[in-house]
Amino acid sequence: MRIAKRVENLPPYLFVGISRKIAEKKARGEDLVSFAIGDPDMPTPKHILDSLCQAARDPANHRYPESDGLPQLRQAISTWYQHRFGLTFNPNKEVVPLIGSKEGIGHVALCFIDPGDIALVTDPGYPVYSVGTMFAGGDCYFLPLTEDNDFLPHLDQVPADIANRAKLLWINYPNNPTAAVADEAFFKKVVAFAKRHDIAVCHDAPYTEVAFDGYRPLSFLQTPGAQDVGMEFHSLSKSYNMTGWRIGMAVVNA
Ligand SMILES: *Cc1c(COP(=O)(O)O)cnc(C)c1O
User: Fold this and answer.
1) Nearest to residue 135, comparing CAs of 102, 108, 170?
2) Which atom of ligand 1 lies at the shortest distance from residue 243's CA?
3) How far away, in angstroms, is 129 Cα from ligand 1 center?
4) What are phi and psi of 119, to 5 degrees?
5) Which residue's CA is the nearest one to ligand 1's atom 1?
6) 188/222 Cα distance (integer angstroms)
7) For ligand 1, what atom is nearest to the CA of residue 102?
8) Are 15 and 36 in contact (CB under 8 A)?
9) What SS3 class is residue 121?
10) N or C: which end of the chain has fewer CB within 10 A?
11) Mutate to test the pocket of ligand 1, among 102, 103, 151 (most ligand atoms within 8 A of CB)
12) 102 CA to middle of ligand 1, Å?
């Protein structure tokens, strides 16, 4: 049986390989600290569990939500963005609930990438940015994240022909795996770069609520002009220890 080329050409999914290596070492009795997939090891907070138990017993929740997502959830996402970042998104047009943000991150390339188009993808980075690009038939141009630039991509080093062919730019701050954070000055550079080359920016932001010593990470969409070029993916997985029952969202200018 022949499987599709897009599957044949796919590199092995990084986390599967890492998990396999960890399992082998554990089977040999080695004591390991895992730097594999980021998965909070604390329980989901009690108020969420209580709500879930109550909601699970309501037959209204035993049916499909509306295709564009439960209106109450879209409203709750919009309200959260307003409280947390002071940003207003229309819950009926600018908020998309996701089955974990990965659902959107993996599929968004289908909206922007035609075969042969380029996505600019930070390296190291969450593997779904590049796999989603490949599934859409696109090519990745990797932007190294290095200490000399505080683990921010050097946008001014992207060759002009690549920047002009690029349709998407992936960024992720606070960053996994480097833990680097981005300030407004960097986000302003991203907006200018995206406008100059007509590129859509996807900011993957599941760690804005995981910060220390009073530091409050920004939403990319707070940057002036960012809503002309960008969208943001967010998730309850890391903020609320809910990786076992994922809920994510995307917010974007309609
Ligand atoms: C965990 C993680 C995600 C995906 O989160 P889900 O909402 O559970 O799909 C996306 N991006 C990064 C960088 C992550 O670490």
Assistant:
1) 108
2) 8
3) 11
4) -115, 135
5) 38
6) 10
7) 9
8) yes
9) strand
10) N
11) 102
12) 6
Q: Do 140 and 119 touch, CB atoms closer than 8 A? A: yes
Position 14 scores a pLDDT of: 72
- pLDDT at residue 28, as a whole number: 93
Confidence label for 34 from pLDDT (cuts 50, 70 and 90): confident
- Non-local (6+) Cβ contacts of 168 within 8 A are 108, 109, 112, 113, 119, 120, 133, 138, 199, 200, 201, 202
Question: Does residue 38 register a pLDDT over 90?
Answer: no
**Band of pLDDT at residue 48, cut at 50, 70 and 90:** very high
Pocket test for ligand 1, best of 13, 107, 176, 203 (most atoms within 8 A of CB): 176
Beta strands in the chain (DSSP E): 95-98, 118-123, 139-144, 166-171, 200-204, 230-235, 248-252
> pLDDT band at residue 218, thresholds of 50, 70 and 90?
very high
Average pLDDT, the chain: 94
**Ligand 1 pocket residues where CB is under 6 Å:** 38, 100-102, 105, 126, 172, 176, 204, 206, 235, 237-238, 243, 246, 248
Q: Which residues pair with 97 in a beta bridge?
A: 249
**Measured from the CA of 39, which atom of ligand 1 is nearest?**
1
- Is the backbone peptide bond immediately before 11 cis, with ω within 30 degrees of 0? no
Cβ-proximal residues to 122 (8 Å cutoff; 6+ apart), any chain: 129, 142, 143, 144, 145, 153, 170, 171, 172, 175
Q: How far is the CA of 111 from the centre of ligand 1 (A)?
A: 20
Q: How many alpha carbons lie under 13 Å from residue 29 in its C-beta half-sphere?
A: 0
